[in-house]
Amino acid sequence: MSVSRNDWTKDEIIAIYNKPMMDLLFEAATVHRQFHDPNVVQVSTLLSIKTGGCPEDCGYCPQAARYHTDIEGNDLMTVSHVKAQALRAKASGSSRVCMGAAWRNVKDGPEFDQVLEMVRTINKLDMEVCCTLGMLTENQAQRLAEAGLYAYNHNLDTSEEYYKEVISTRGFEDRLQTIENVRKTNVTVCSGGIIGMGESIEDRAGMLVALATLNPQPESVPINALVAVEGTPMEDEKPVEIWEMIRMVATTRIVMPQTQVRLSAGRMSMSREGQAMCFFAGANSIFAGDKLLTTPNPDVNDDMKMFDMLGLIPQKPFVKAAQPETVEAEQSKFSALGEKPKWTRPGHTIERNIEASQKSKV
Ligand code: SF4
Known about the structure:
TIM Barrel, 12 strands, two-stranded antiparallel ribbon, about 350 residues
């Protein structure tokens, strides 16, 4: 019987990742069955509630204002628009709505108040609500919790060592600080990363060490394959092989047995057989809808056909944790503090990010 451990080392994780594929799959599937129903997969819908124009320089992201991509930016969506989208997602089998805003960090004010209202509205639809809004103070995390937020997503993206090759506008420690702020509330933590950004297997293992040694481990870990978008610094990265994705999912499942492992970006280039192997290896969540923030994703009807074919059942909401209560804005115990925390500006340079931004000016 496998147990949850928080003392994983990088060497142990590398050894798991490099196991012969059949041994790796068997072990991951065995762990998966100890902690989860292997035929149940959570379906989440990711909504981009504010697209583009982000001041950060994440090398993989088409929403960074400094790169020249074809992304059409939009201002913060209205609460009624978000509600309509959430109802549509619910009708097509989603139990969770994740709202993403292209912000460096949350700022107190009318836009954050509008997001809090979105959280209340979706929670009242009896769906799990998740947000990914950038860095967050403890007070902001408390206000989200009070509004009825179920999960907060804040990806570590990669290892601490490789982080400096991907992003120069904030530090790895900022990510950990936001996760810690969320942990002070009853909101669950969703944090994972991206493979295919030029990182080594050691970096993949390093990211998993950082996640698996958190105590408690994140309730949800998204594993993304880079979708290389033209105009971003990573436009020329080679596509991730399905076998790498399967290894990453299986290793994540083994080192974080209780977590919900999300098969996230990159599914457009995976066959159904490849995705089925990922489910066998322990993935038990997908994002549905034809767009993942800004990159293409399989159509929900195709996903439902895949579910039928594989005998998979969409997970109901709130099976892993109770539905949070929603406190209305007028009854709130918390007020906006208007804090201006000093998130780091590490100041190192990343040549490919600078080149991509100069190219866009030309
Ligand atoms: S990943 Fe998020 S923080 Fe980074 S550039 Fe894109 S929107 Fe901004």
